């Protein structure tokens, strides 16, 4: 993912791997600003070039950056991970890369539209700066990414935070994006780009700190402490042309915002504080963040957020503990999300409640484990349900008075026996910190009338 390398490293990589490497992807399609090269037989999605042009336009617009006349980005899309690993000029530690060292900007990737690497290419004619500025800005216009990791910053620790490496490879992507987002906010995009043009590639911490002071007229000690205390250290940092609405946490519904990307539709939403999100899912939705597209192969791996679909014509209700970030659901443009504040002061009397009618069932419910104290959740089931508790630390309480000390006065709901608990009507849960897992899970399934409380009865599902 590192987008810029020194010319020296590039030259070494080219020489070292030349004998085994396949030629560059050779099929070429053009748009005004892109030459898109792919492998024979690899589909170019109908919307890819238009989406690339839209990403360029929105990124340049935000940065108020002019485009050199006639400049075109060469975009090399490899067939898949194996292809790029074997054949691209990227240094071995980086599965995707851009060469921005020569001013022109060339992208090597296996993604059909690699927004992060494209930003390196867009800015190649501006300069070839320190990796901190280059990677920081590239991650800000990467709207295909998941939640931005929360960054904890110690004042005066920028030497460690911005220069961390693993096996000699620079690792401080989230920290760099926090710094750059803060710089753009405080000094403006124009001033940041001036610094981008003047910054020298490859400086170590001491020289980088001195250069920073020259470029911005203030010390990095001060700016890093401010950046770490800013909302960008824990909130959404990405700057996206199509932004989702923020998940409200007062129990009202948040609709998805429809965004077009790469010829398909996405439903986008953002989470700005740790939240408990309830989703109602109709049966046919294969929901997953970073789900493979209908067109193209080798899309972003590692889904980190998914919602299981329902079945049997019922509608599934799922609760998930959400970290701050920008999320999208591939191929889904309509869905109601209901958010609750996860970190609200715990009170049994005002506990979040969710209501499930007879046509509903919950699938998997994930509750955040409190760091201390007890948090409370209320559910109302209009139809019989069976609950299977997968983790310890959840208690079923008869009332709020008992719930004040759940470990003594409520029923532990651990799934030790593998048996479900039948519920109908109101259910009060107390969640305590005494579990190893960061979040606690239980599953809910409908139990037909006549089966409840009679496990194993002929004609009834086994969980009844
Ligand atoms: Zn990069």
Please supply descriptive tags for the structure shown above.
464 residues, alpha+beta, Neutral Protease, domain 2, 2 domains, eleven-stranded mixed beta sheet, five-stranded mixed beta sheet, 24 strands, globular, disordered N terminus, binds zinc ion
Explain how this protein is built.
With about 475 residues, this protein is an alpha+beta fold. It folds into two domains: about 5-235, Neutral Protease, domain 2 (Orthogonal Bundle); about 245-445, no CATH class. Helices cover about 25% and strands about 30% of the residues. Strand 2 (about 35-40), helix 2 and strand 3 (about 75) form a beta-alpha-beta unit. Helix 5 crosses helix 7 (about 175-185) and helix 7 (about 175-185) packs across helix 8 (about 190-200). The protein is globular, with a radius of gyration of 26 Å. The two termini are about 50 Å apart. Bound molecules: zinc ion. Zinc ion (ZN) binds near residues 1, 2, 3, 116 and 138.
Offer a quick outline of the entry:
This protein has helices at residues 7-17, 48-63, 81-87, 115-122, 131-140, 158-161, 173-187, 189-198, 205-216, 220-229, 400-403, 406-409, and strands spanning 27-30, 34-38, 73-77, 97-99, 106-109, 165-166, 169-170, 245-246, 250-255, 257-261, 264-271, 275-281, 287-288, 306-307, 315-322, 325-330, 336-341, 353-356, 360-368, 375-389, 394-397, 411-412, 421-431, 439-446. The protein is an alpha+beta fold and 464 residues long.
Summed up, the helix count is 12
Share of helix among residues?
A: 10-25%
What ligand molecules are bound, each kind once?
A: zinc ion
Q: Approximately what portion of the residues adopt beta-strand conformation?
A: 25-35%
Structural classification: alpha+beta
**What's the structural domain tally?**
2
Q: Tell me which CATH architecture of the largest domain applies here.
A: Orthogonal Bundle
Largest sheet composition? 11 strands, mixed
Q: What is the gyration radius calculated from CA atoms?
A: 26 Å
Q: What is the CATH topology descriptor of the largest domain?
A: Neutral Protease, domain 2
Terminus-to-terminus distance: 50 Å
Mean pLDDT: 78
């Amino acid at each position: 993912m590192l987008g810029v390398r020194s010319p020296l490293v590039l030259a070494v990589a080219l020489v070292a791997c030349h004998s085994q490497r396949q030629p560059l992807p050779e099929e070429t399609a053009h748009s005004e600003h892109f030459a898109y090269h792919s492998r024979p037989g690899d589909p170019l999605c109908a919307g890819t070039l238009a989406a690339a042009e839209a990403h360029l336009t929105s990124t340049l617009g935000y940065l108020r950056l002019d485009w050199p006349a006639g400049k075109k980005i060469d975009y090399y899309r490899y067939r898949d991970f194996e292809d790029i690993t074997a054949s691209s000029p990227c240094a071995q530690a980086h599965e995707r890369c851009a060469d921005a060292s020569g001013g022109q900007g060339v992208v090597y990737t296996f993604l059909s539209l690699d927004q992060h690497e494209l930003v390196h290419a867009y800015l190649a004619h501006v300069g070839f700066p320190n990796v901190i500025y280059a990677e920081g800005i590239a991650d800000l216009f990467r709207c295909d990414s998941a939640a931005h990791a929360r960054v904890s910053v110690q004042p005066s620790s920028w030497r460690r935070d911005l220069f961390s490496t693993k096996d000699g490879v620079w690792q401080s992507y989230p920290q760099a994006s926090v710094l750059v987002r803060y710089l753009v906010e405080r000094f403006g995009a124009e001033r940041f780009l001036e610094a981008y043009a003047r910054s020298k590639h490859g400086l170590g911490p001491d020289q980088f700190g001195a250069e920073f002071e020259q470029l911005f007229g203030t010390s990095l000690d001060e700016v890093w402490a401010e950046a770490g205390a800013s909302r960008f250290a824990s909130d959404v940092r990405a700057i996206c042309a199509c932004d989702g609405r923020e998940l409200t946490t007062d129990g009202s519904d948040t609709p998805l915002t429809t965004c077009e990307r790469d010829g398909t539709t996405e439903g986008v939403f953002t989470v700005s504080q740790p939240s408990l999100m309830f989703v109602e899912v109709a049966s046919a939705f294969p929901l997953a963040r970073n789900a493979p597209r209908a067109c193209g192969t080798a899309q972003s791996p590692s889904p980190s957020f998914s919602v299981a679909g329902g079945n049997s014509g019922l509608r599934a209700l799922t609760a998930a503990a959400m970290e701050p970030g920008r999320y999208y659901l591939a191929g889904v443009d309509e869905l109601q999300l209901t958010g609750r504040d996860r970190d609200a002061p715990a009170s049994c009397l005002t506990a979040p409640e969710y209501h499930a009618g007879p046509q509903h069932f919950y699938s998997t419910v994930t509750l955040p484990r409190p760091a201390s104290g007890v948090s409370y959740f209320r559910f109302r089931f209009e139809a019989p349900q069976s609950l299977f508790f997968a983790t310890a630390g959840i208690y079923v309480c008869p009332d709020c008075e008992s719930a004040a000390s759940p470990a003594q006065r409520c029923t532990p709901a651990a799934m030790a026996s593998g048996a479900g608990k039948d519920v109908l009507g109101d259910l009060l849960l107390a969640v305590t910190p005494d579990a190893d897992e960061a979040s606690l899970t239980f599953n809910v399934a409908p139990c037909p009338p006549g089966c409840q409380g009679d496990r194993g009865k002929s004609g009834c599902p086994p969980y009844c």
